[in-house]
Each structure stands twice: as C-alpha cells, then as structure tokens.
Amino acid sequence: MTGTVNPAELARRLDDARRERREVPPLTNELPTLSVPDAYAIQEEGLKLRLAAGERLVGLKMGLTSEAKRRQMNLDSPVYGVLTDKMRVLADGVVSLAQGIHPKIEPEIAFRTARELKGTVTRDEALDACESVFAAMEILDSRYRDFKYFSLPDVVADNASSSLFVLATEEHPPRAMDLTRLEMKMFVNDALAHSARSDAISGDPVLSLVQLCELLAKRGQVLPAGSIVLAGAATIAHMFQPGDRVKLVVEGLGAVAVSAA
Ligand code: OOG
Ligand code: MG
User: Fold this and answer.
1) Which of 16, 79, 75, 21 is nearest to 50 (CA)?
2) Do 238 and 103 touch, CB atoms closer than 8 A?
3) Is 17 among the domain residues?
4) Ligand 1 atom at shortest distance from the alpha carbon of 142
C-alpha cells in the first residue's frame, strides 16, 4: 500500500458519486501509483459502506473475461466486483435511468453456487459446486467521467463498474448442457444488437468461476455457498437509453429482458 492511499476515504468518494449520480475523475489521475491490491482494498471499503446502509452481499461479478470487452475497455486482465441484493432487478423489470450516470447493458451467463469454493479449483469442482445456471444481463455504470478510465486499479476500486443485474426466471442444472457452445443474442427493441457464443466468456464461462476463486484467494477470501456469480459479458456493452427494451436469448437457458425508463 502506498503511503498516500486511504482506502476508506477513496471508497467514500466513489460511493458518494454513485449515490449522488455524479461523475468523478479516475483515482489514478491523482494517485498514479495506485496498485491493484490497493484498489481491491478500496472496493472492500465500498462494500462496507453498502452493508452499513442495509444492503446484503448476494454474490460477485467477473469482468473483462471476454476479448471483446477487454478490447472495448483497453485493459488486459479479468477483475471482480461485488453484487448486493439492492443491485438486483427482477426479470422484465423497468430500470429508471435517472438513477444512474451513464448506464450500459451487456449479455452474461450467471451461476448460483450451492457449496463454498476456495482457492485453486478445477473446472469440475467449480461446476459441481453450482446448482444453477442462468441467462443474465449486467447493467454497468462507471462512476468515472464519460465512463472513461484507463487502468485496472481505477475499475477495480469502482466495483468493476457494476450497477445492477438481472437473472432469467428460468434456471437450469449446469451439467445439463455444454456451456461452451450456447448462442447468445441480445436484442434492443427487437433488433439484434450483439451476439456471440458462450465460449467468448473466458473460453468457457465455468472458467470465470475458477478465475474468481483464484482472485479471491489472493485476498484470503472464499466464494461462499449460495453466491450468484456473473461470469462476464460475451460481447461489448450497449448504451442503455430510455425506452429501450433489451432482451437476451441464450440457447438452452431461455430469455431475460429488462426495460429502461
Ligand atoms: C468493466 C466491467 C466489465 C464484463 O462483464 O466484462 C464487465 C467495464 O466494462 O467498465 O463487467
Ligand atoms: Mg459485466
């Protein structure tokens, strides 16, 4: 940790920006040596603020697990963020975009774990610990000016740009299908906007779980039983506009939709 980094103060700054819906400059403008471990310490302080406000931790999200997203954001390694109950939007729900700054939406696959996962795990162990897999979408909303940041520490500190998420009502046993070969199609107002195959996510969405456990272990943490895990977007994100109805159809997993007002 560099001498000038005060994780609690920086977390407060980002949390105020989120709650007051205002943009702030990337932290690395002021702290060019901010490291990824510093940034996770800031993220953790940010979670404490949300828990103190009565929110409950329900899971984690992986980000930058696809080549398309890494290219879009010009960053080169996966990151994680936290998901709370307040971030969940029900399927077919309507999101008020006035509650955000500059939201984007992206197509994902999500898991729910039934058992704790810890440290280095194999693909089979990760899959065996999951009870369900879902079609899902994440609504991102960076707290940084113009949704622009140029470093991993910035995005990690800002809870990996997470804002809201939606899971399909339909859930499936993860062993019922080959999770690497599912066609994913995201429609905006019935027009196909982005599509990809599910192996765009980490080469295999289950590997996002494996990577998440490794990243958590570096911080001495585990993935608790009952966690929802977003495996990461398969394509670039779409700028969510008022009036948009966005629907994701994942072969074998069904559909999930959300609208913006
Ligand atoms: C970072 C978060 C990326 C994903 O699914 O790849 C992410 C960002 O795009 O600002 O959630
Ligand atoms: Mg995402």
Assistant:
1) 16
2) no
3) no
4) 10
